[in-house]
Write a structure and sequence with these properties.
The chain has 436 residues and is an alpha/beta fold. It has 18 helices and 7 strands. The chain folds into 3 domains: 128 residues, YqgF/RNase H-like domain (Nucleotidyltransferase, domain 5, 2-Layer Sandwich); 131 residues; 158 residues, no CATH class.
């Protein structure tokens, strides 16, 4: 069987470039063919690759993950029974630096992509088009991430504003009552004019069981700000208060949109696609996290082994070895999707409190390896990623086990962790100082 390799350098708004390589002669049939994402032009590329050959011809297409241009080209080639490989741009860049360290062009990128299959076939994973539903699941996950990001940014703006206008009040006003103050009494002049007794009565009218012992200290701070600024116009509270109201309205809108997205679209689609999902049997992985994993993983079969999957998540540490020197304190590669890394980290935080084996990883990282909290949780996240791979590969639910591999219940695991795998407080404080 003859083999021809097509390296495709994709563009977003302009024409794409293809280079066609013949491994048998180790020569390029063409180093640059211009084309657009149109069936007739893609067929022209395939005809050129088969030119001069008869019988079975294996066509390999290697293309770069450029925006979503790869999808329209890749799915068409896949339907033509072509092997498609999608690669990260970092791989292309690294190989191009070897071949042409001082030059860069679309033509060189296409040639590099074609040669990439020859020099690194074992590092490539064949791509198969995901379904429209899985793409929608991934898109919703990204939308949810954007909403959370906007909520966080809005909260941070309000905190920064409060730090300036009030000198901060996180330690002054209990968290359950901060929004009440934000919405109703942000102006210190208004708060002091109403008085302690009226404010206590007002709070009790909306929250009968609310504590009011913090109000005197808050009013004292309000008086201090009055003395500091002398007049409300110095800060412009007439304009600050409406700004705060608009930010709170934005927070309400974002919360509503987030709730609708999760309850009416994101989770229903996930449940439809994965009615008996094994991922939710993992401690720390709820439906929302499982939906995010599925939306990005697409199919676990595209990862040949556990190691490659963990590397894809970005939770695998870099490595360095030279002679007798082995550096085991390298940073994480961080090459995976940001949302996958963030979700793994959050899930690992919960999982280490319920899974004995993961709790031991965290304990050893903190106590024996001298890592701080974030590093230790990332190590747990790496192990959690390996479990996700195993469950999806084998399609079996997860069973909590002790350190000897014997099944245990959630209550037994929790009790064992609290008794034997709790990081001493003095060590935690030491690691926290080192991190800061």
């Amino acid at each position: 069987m003859y083999t021809r390799i097509i390296g495709v350098d994709l563009a977003v708004k302009t024409v794409h470039t293809a280079a066609i390589y013949d491994p048998a002669s180790q020569k390029f049939l063409t180093k640059r063919m211009r084309f657009r994402s149109r069936p007739q032009e893609l067929d022209r590329i395939l005809d050129k690759a088969r030119e001069g050959l008869s019988g079975d011809v294996q066509i390999i297409v290697v293309l770069e993950a450029t925006n979503m241009s790869w999808f329209e080209v890749g799915q068409y080639f896949h339907r033509q029974k072509v092997e498609v490989y999608r690669v990260n741009g970092r791989k292309t860049k690294a190989l191009r630096r070897v071949d042409s360290p001082h030059a860069h062009s679309d033509k060189l990128d296409g040639m590099t992509l074609a040669r990439l299959y020859v020099v690194g076939k074992d590092k490539l994973v064949r791509w198969t088009p995901p379904s429209g539903e899985l793409l929608a699941l991934q898109r919703m996950a990204r939308e949810l991430q954007r909403i959370v990001g906007l909520q966080t940014a809005t909260q941070q703006r309000l905190q920064d504003l409060t730090q300036w206008t009030w000198g901060g009040w996180n330690k002054l006003i209990p968290a359950p009552y901060q929004e009440w103050v934000l919405r109703n009494f942000y102006d210190p002049w208004t708060a002091t004019a109403l008085g302690e007794e009226w404010l206590q009565m007002q709070l009790k009218s909306v929250r009968p069981k609310a504590k009011t012992d913090w109000i005197p200290a808050w009013l004292k701070r309000a008086q201090e700000r009055q003395q500091l600024y002398a007049e409300a116009s110095v800060v412009g509270f007439d304009h600050v208060v409406p700004f705060v109201q608009r930010e709170l309205e934005m927070m309400d809108w974002l919360a509503q949109r987030r709730s609708i997205l999760v309850k009416e679209e994101f989770l229903p689609l996930y449940r439809q696609l994965f009615p008996d999902d094994v991922l939710v049997t993992l401690r720390g992985v709820a439906e929302r996290s499982a939906a995010i994993y599925h939306g990005f993983i697409i199919t676990i079969q595209r990862f040949p082994n556990n190691k490659r999957f963990v590397q894809w998540t970005g939770m695998a540490p870099r490595s360095f070895q030279s002679g007798t020197v082995v550096n085991k304190r390298m940073r994480l590669s961080k090459q995976g999707p940001n949302l996958i890394k963030a979700t793994l980290y959050q899930n690992a935080q919960v999982a280490r409190s319920w899974d004995i084996q993961l709790a031991k990883v965290y304990y050893e990282q903190m106590v024996q390896q001298g890592k701080h909290h974030t590093q230790a949780v990332c190590a747990v996240a790496s192990h959690l990623a390996a479990r996700i791979y195993a469950l999806l590969r084998d399609q079996r639910p997860y069973q909590l086990q002790d350190l000897q591999g014997r099944p245990v219940s959630s209550q037994q695991a929790r009790a064992y962790i609290q008794e034997h795998l709790q990081v001493p407080e003095n060590i935690r404080k030491q690691r926290k100082r080192r991190q800061s």
